[in-house]
Amino acid sequence: MSTNKKLKIGLVGGGPGSFIGAIHLNGALMDGMFELAAGAFSSNPEKSRKRGEELRLNPSRVYSSYDEMFEKELQLPEDERIDVVVIVTPNNVHFDPTAKAIRAGFHVVLDKPLTLNYQEAKELYHIVSNSDRKFLLTHTYSGYPMIKQAKQMIEEGKLGKIHKVYVEYPQGWLYKLLEKEDNKQAEWRTDPKRNGMAGCMGDIGTHAFHLAEYVSGQKVEKICADLYIKVEGRPIDDDGVVLMRFENGASGVLMASQTDTGLENNLKIRVFGDKGGIEWQQEDNNSLIVRYPGQPAQIFRAGTGYLGSLAQENTRTPAGHPEGYVEAFANLYRNFARCIYAERNGETPKEEWKDFPGIEDGIRGMAFIEHVLKSTETEYKWTSFEVEK
């Protein structure tokens, strides 16, 4: 097998009407390391065929199911078959294709959260951990250069001992019952059978949780949660608040809502230590505010030469040329590909390349959902954050 050929993608999901499927493809293809070779784009064979036509794929590589894709791709010569399975389906179709793809010998990229429920997560954790295949879970926001700058500054002690983390993810798009208005995204994201038992907190709260641990470098040990249903008639939460206690004694507050009417997607994190603090928000993602006592606030900017190695490795354009959401996806895909190439070439990947979310992040995210649900249901709210594997 050529060690330098493009990595061939087989896409599961991403059919007509898919939002995240197109975003994944744009990110994956940006650096010329991947190419789309095959797909099972929908459980409806006609929709899968139609999407394959739109993407100009060879009709023989467009499949009616992921089972068919895995079976037929494995029959092809090794240099022709897919290398990586990318799964962009609703949460109830995460476990099965991931488990089968890993067992078939493919690398896997999976949109978060890891699975529909915690039990599936524990089983999938063992399948992935006991395999030599690489696994990427797309917690996108960890791909932003200035998030990586914040993480590295904290690792290097620039803020001192961390004692407070605030993270919020406010959206407003579910301010009414869109799921009753033939909105495909709203339909599955508010359906416990397809999304899981946590709505807003499972969908975007898991992103906020991952970012809190990723940036601060601290693991959550206890939580105290309240979930709410703000729109009458909705079966699962669309709003929630979580208090967090971290392993080093730091405290934290996580807020997530999809009913903050009029708001778009301004994920925000603030972290404070005994020397200083940082602040970042997605709607100005190329800036990182750094504050120290007795000094004017500093604004660090993406694309500048004074940033650390993590940010530099994940920056694509000079300062002042905006990079955004798709580039954050692309950074995760590029690091993932670089690690696959390094392994094929018998090389050791750079530490900066290995900085992408994987199975550990996935099972912690599912444990977060489990403990948030448990805390919400109990009269005594504080719940120990334990990760069973």
Please, could you describe this protein's structure?
There is one protein chain. By secondary structure, the chain is of the alpha/beta class. It is built from twelve helices and 14 strands. It has helices at residues 20-29, 45-54, 66-73, 95-103, 118-129, 145-155, 184-189, 192-195, 200-216, 309-313, 325-344, 359-377, and strands at 7-13, 34-40, 84-88, 107-111, 135-138, 162-170, 220-228, 239-246, 251-257, 268-273, 277-281, 287-291, 298-301, 383-384. It has a nine-stranded mixed beta sheet. Strands 2-1-3-4-5 form a five-stranded parallel beta sheet, sandwiched between helices. The longest helix is centred in the last third of the chain and has 20 residues, at 325-344. It is globular, with a radius of gyration of 21 Å. The model has no long low-confidence stretch (mean pLDDT 96).
Layout: helices, strands, pairs:
Layout: E1 7-13, H1 20-29, E2 34-40, H2 45-54, H3 66-73, E3 84-88, H4 95-103, E4 107-111, H5 118-129, E5 135-138, H6 145-155, E6 162-170, H7 184-189, H8 192-195, H9 200-216, E7 220-228, E8 239-246, E9 251-257, E10 268-273, E11 277-281, E12 287-291, E13 298-301, H10 309-313, H11 325-344, H12 359-377, E14 383-384
Parallel strand pairs: 1-2, 1-3, 3-4, 4-5, 6-9
Antiparallel strand pairs: 6-10, 7-8, 7-14, 8-9, 10-11, 11-12, 12-13
User: If strands are numbered along the chain, what order do they take across the biggest sheet?
Assistant: 13-12-11-10-6-9-8-7-14
Please give the largest β-sheet.
Answer: 9 strands, mixed
**Average pLDDT level:** 96
- Low-confidence segments, given as residue ranges, are none
Strand content: 15-25%
Number of helices: 12
Multimeric organization: single chain
Give the overall shape: globular
- Kindly state the percentage of residues in helix: 25-40%
- Radius of gyration, taken over Cα atoms and rounded to an integer in Å: 21 Å
What series of H and E elements makes up the topology? EHEHHEHEHEHEHHHEEEEEEEHHHE
The secondary structure category is alpha/beta
Instruction: Compute the separation of the termini in Å.
Output: 35 Å
Tell how many strands the DSSP assignment holds. 14
